[in-house]
Structures are given as structure tokens and as C-alpha cells.
Amino acid sequence: MSAKLEQKETPQANGAVLPIVPGDCLASPERGQRGEPADFLGPDGTGVEVVVLESRANAKGVREEDALLENGSQSNESDDTSTDRGPEPASPLKETSFSIGLQVLFPFLLAGFGTVAAGMVLDVVQHWDVFKYVTEVFILVPALLGLKGNLEMTLASRLSTAANIGQMDTPKELWKMITGNMALIQVQATVVGFLASIAAVVFGWIPDGHFSLDHAVLLCASSVATAFIASLVLGMIMIGVIIGSRKMGINPDNVATPIAASLGDLITLALLSGISWGLYKELESKAYVNPLVCAFFIALLPLWIIIAKRNSATREVLYSGWEPVIIAMAISSVGGLILDRTVSDPNFAGMAVFTPVINGVGGNLVAVQASRISTYLHMSGMPGESPETAPRKCPSPCSTFFSSDVNSRSARVLFLLVVPGHLVFLYTISSMQGGHTTLTLIFIVFYMTAALLQVLILLYIADWMVHWMWGRDLDPDNFSIPYLTALGDLIGTGLLALSFHVLWLIGDRDSDVGD
């Protein structure tokens, strides 16, 4: 004899229903589990099949695209309560190319104008005595400007991911993230600034064979002070931007990293120029000032280390996050050596104004892409897992730029921003009469070729690097962006220097490259 159990349907928050089974069934440990039929015994011992319908939120899962598009909120407007899952479940909303471009455009232009301002500053200060007689300061320029990639952009990416996955929703969580991350970047800024000065001394000493202790201490004091103050100011700006973007319903991944760079280059270069100039003036009369400045900022290190260690969100990065920032600093310093050797030649003095622009634009765009891919993966699981949406370890250029997924779409949008963006920035430099180069057609062609090639290479490397690090249990937010922005500095400076040399060799006198 078969028995039938009376079932009642209980409405769920998202509109789905679950059957309630009275009697012994309520005590079953299998009750409430999803997706599979559960066998229960009726009063006569025969089996009764009760199908428990899963809720739509569980059926669809927490997918990265949903979080990217809805900024961490889940959509409940779909009427589909099916529990069937295909290999590529459809997202209720999708970011279109237009929406990506619209969100990225304003911060991209803002960041670009920041790099233009930095280029104008470098074009002026390259003629100051401290840059003439302590030319190793030029080597510090890409390394310290790269701190926005090593520290501020990494901070922005880390906080954007935390905001998107709900780790900054309560005041307690927010304060914990702020204090831990601010202390962390002060530790990293002080150490990286000190190592950057050592790299500048070494790279300056090797070609010339000349070493000056006074100049070495000057470089150390200038680098450490600049890194510390710039990171403090920019870190506070970043926190405000991410909190504000969340409240306005904007994806922080699209705006945080460009805005980090918008003032980053200008503030860092202005601080480096002003501090190095002031310390250079004190070098003869008050030689004790430079070592005193170094000692002061290094003495603060234990305080920042203690604060960062007490925060679980930053403790791991404090121990394991040094490799990318130090290697990235070394890579950027090689770019600085190229800049030093090129700008020191009067024939290529005009390169100074364009270097922060091409490096900054490339670094900004690849940082946006890396941050988006990282958030995409974080929504699929934890580092080391292999989500179904992860591409091959070595993606083809076609899959990076021409597939239908949201990250490929954003790569196309970011790449298409290069030419119009640089045209605006070049026009701005020309209208402000910056640099020593007239914008002829052949110069613009060479410049645009270098810029497009730089961004193309960076976006492809980002697609490979972020997934490669993810598969090796490394958080891309902490590891990928320093490498990518440093590579952007090296590739951008190298391609720009090559363009200037080719223009000089073919005799494009109309562009006045050598004036």
C-alpha cells in the first residue's frame, strides 16, 4: 500500500518554494539540500519521493559577471526557477561595451591629464641643478611613479575586490580594511623607496664608474620621503574613491585604478622634484639633514609593521607581498636608466614630457583590466581553484581580444581608447607649448604605433598573468598589477626612446626632436 504525504509550500525570499514534509521527514538530515531527489519512508515503509526545489539564488549561484555588473548585488527579477545548469549559464544583466566605456572614459581622461601635468613638470624640472648634477634622480622617476602601480593601484584593486564581494559593508569591516591597508602601504612605500634609491645609485655608478656618498644619501632621503608622503596622500584618496563609487552604484574596478593614477604621477613627481631640490640646496651647508630625513622615515617602520600584522586582511600581504613590488621596482628602474641615458642627450630632451604620458596611459588601462579579471575570478572561488570560466593558461590573442566574454569585451574597449586618448593628450601638450618637439604627422604616427603596441602587449600579458597567478594560489590583486605597470614603464620608455632615435636617424627635422 502506498502512502501519500501532504506537502505545504513555503514561500522563499526570492520567490521560489520549498516543500515542507511533516512527520519523520522533518528530522531527515537530507532535508533542505538542493538539486537531488530525497527518499523518505512513509508510514507503511514504502518510499515516497519528495523533490526539494532549490532557490533561484542558489540555482544561479554567485557568479562573477553578476557582481561585476550589479556591483555585488544579486538580481531577483528573473522568473526562471529551473535547477538545470548549463556549462555557460546566462547572466540576468550584462555589461555592454558602451557601459564599460562610459564608466572608464571619465577616469581614464582624468588620469591622462594627470600624466600630462606630470610630463609638463618633468619637462621643466629636468633643467634644475639637482637633475643636471645628480642625474640619477631621473632613474628614480619611473620607479617612484611606478609606486602607484606597486602600491596605490594594488590597494585600489584589493579594496575594489573587497567591496564587490561584501567585505566592506559594515563600519567595523570598513575601518579594519582602511587601517590595515594604510599601514601596509606605508611599510611597502618606505622599503621600496629605500631600495629604489639603491638601484638608482647602482645603475648610475655602473656606466660612469663614479660614486658620491653625498649624492647617494640625497637619493635615499628624497626617495624615501617622496614614497612615504605620496603613498599616504594617495591611499587616503583611494579609500574615498572606492567608498564613494560603491554608494553611487559604480563598479570600483572601472574607476579606482585610473583615479589612483590621475593625481599619482603629478603628486609623486612634484614631491620628488621639490624634496630633492630642497635637500640638494642643504647639501653644502647642512649635510646632516639628508641622513636625518632617512633615519626619521625608517624609524617609523616598526609602528606600521605592528599595525599591519594585527590586521588579518593585510598580515599575509605583509609577509608574502614583497616579491612583486621589489621586482617591479627593479624593472621600472631599468626604464629609468633608459630615460636617464636618453634625456641626458640634448638631441632627445623632448622625450621627457611624453614619458609619463605613454607610461601612465598604458599602466592605467592594464590596471583596470587586471582588476576586473581578478574580481571575476574572486567571485568564482578562491585562488588556486580552477573555475569553469577560467581560460587556458596561455590564452591565444583571439581569445583575449575577440571572444564574447565580458573581460574580452573590456579589453577591446580599453584598446580602442588608446588612440583618441593620446590624441587629446598630445593636443593638450602642444597647446600648452610643452616639450621640445613639434607634433608632425610622422611623429604622431611613430608615437601612436608605440602606444598601441605597448597596450596590446600589456593587455595580453594581463590576461595570461592574472589567470596564471590564480592557478598557483596567488592573489592577483596583490601580485599582478605591480608587474604589469612596471612592464608598462619599461615597454613604454623603451618604445618611445626607440621612436625618437628612429625619427632622428631618418632626419625628421620638422619635428624638432633635437631642439
Explain the overall architecture.
With 515 residues, this protein is mainly alpha-helical. It is built from 20 helices and four strands. It has helices spanning 56-60, 64-70, 97-125, 129-133, 137-145, 147-164, 171-208, 213-247, 252-262, 264-285, 289-299, 301-309, 312-320, 322-343, 355-378, 397-401, 406-416, 418-431, 441-471, 476-506, and strands at 8-11, 17-20, 38-41, 47-50. The strands form two sheets. Strands 1-2 form a two-stranded antiparallel ribbon. Strands 3-4 form a two-stranded antiparallel ribbon. Strand 3 (38-41) and strand 4 (47-50) form a beta hairpin. The longest helix is centred in the middle third of the chain and has 38 residues, at 171-208. It is found in: Membrane. The chain crosses the membrane at residues 104-124, 182-204, 216-243, 255-275, 287-307, 319-339, 411-429, 441-461, 481-506. Keywords: Ion transport, Magnesium, Membrane, Transmembrane, Transmembrane helix, Transport.
Task: Tell me about the largest β-sheet.
Answer: 2 strands, antiparallel
Termini separation (Å)?
A: 101 Å
Mean pLDDT: 76
Approximate strand percentage: under 5%
The helix-and-strand class reads: mainly alpha
Our Rg estimate from Cα atoms comes to 27 Å
CATH topology of the largest domain: Tetracycline Repressor, domain 2
SSE order, one letter for each helix or strand: EEEEHHHHHHHHHHHHHHHHHHHH
Extract low-pLDDT stretches.
1-40, 48-93
The side-by-side strand order for the widest beta sheet comes to: 1-2
Instruction: Tally the beta strands.
Output: 4
The tally of helices reads: 20
Shape: globular
Q: Structurally, how many domains make up the residues? A: 2
The CATH top-level class label of the largest domain: Mainly Alpha
Give helix % range: 55-70%
- At CATH level 2, the architecture of the largest domain is Orthogonal Bundle
